[in-house]
Write a structure and sequence with these properties.
Strand content: under 5%
Helix content: 55-70%
Order of helices and strands: EHHHHEHH
Shape: globular
Radius of gyration: 23 Å
Low-confidence stretches: 170-182, 185-200
Number of strands: 2
Distance between the termini: 14 Å
Structural class: mainly alpha
Oligomer: single chain
Strand order of the largest sheet: 1-2
Length: 200
């Protein structure tokens, strides 16, 4: 009878830290940038659900609440910069939480490439946001009220699509193996080194 083995990685952090970090960024961003209590509750519920079930896509609903705080209030350079940062950070954390199982542990060094990409993209995005804030006149008045739900829908849909494409199929699913016997009844030749014998 085999006994279970556990691999301990020095300096690793528990996977729930990523989920809790996602919830903190979402709820904190909504409380700070969205002045409407209704969206606080929506963001809080989405943040809680994202911790329990990351694949529920609730994180991106909470991210939309942060973005709504920008489009429903007066324009401000610091608010725009903060929304760009928090939305991006929450998206990255939610993507990591999606892929990492609850009971696993992860070394911080594994996340460094993602952190570097975040910083590079932020440098570009913050520059573009600053230029647009200076060049584009304020969009006020009832004629632009449709921008709020449209912006939230586009943000949520684009984030969800990008996540699906980047992660691919569910890692828990494996393609069905091909039959070991050909239709004619003969067994195909085994690939060199494929049969190692015994149970794996």
């Amino acid at each position: 009878m085999r006994t279970p083995h556990e691999l301990t990685v020095p300096g690793a952090i528990p996977a729930p830290v990523l989920r809790i970090g996602t919830a903190v960024v979402i709820l904190g961003g909504a409380l700070l940038l969205n002045p409407y209590p209704l969206w606080w509750w929506v963001a809080g519920a989405a943040a809680l659900l994202s911790v329990i079930v990351p694949r529920s896509m609730a994180s991106w609903l909470g991210i939309a609440c942060i973005a709504l705080g920008l489009v429903l209030t007066e324009q401000s350079a610091w608010r725009t910069a903060l929304v760009v940062l928090l939305v991006h950070a929450a998206h990255v954390l939610a993507s990591w939480s999606w892929a990492v199982p609850w009971r696993s542990r992860i070394r911080p060094s594994v996340l460094l490439p993602g952190v570097r990409r975040l910083l590079v993209i932020q440098a570009i995005a913050q520059t573009v946001a600053a230029l647009m804030a200076l060049a584009v006149p304020p969009l006020n008045g009832p004629g632009f009220a449709w921008l709020a739900p449209l912006g939230a829908a586009v943000l949520t849909g684009a984030s969800a699509f990008a996540l699906r494409v980047s992660l691919g199929p569910d890692p828990g699913r494996r393609p069905a193996s091909r039959s070991a016997v050909e239709p004619g009844g003969s067994s195909p030749a085994a690939a060199p080194g494929a049969n190692v014998g015994g149970r794996s």
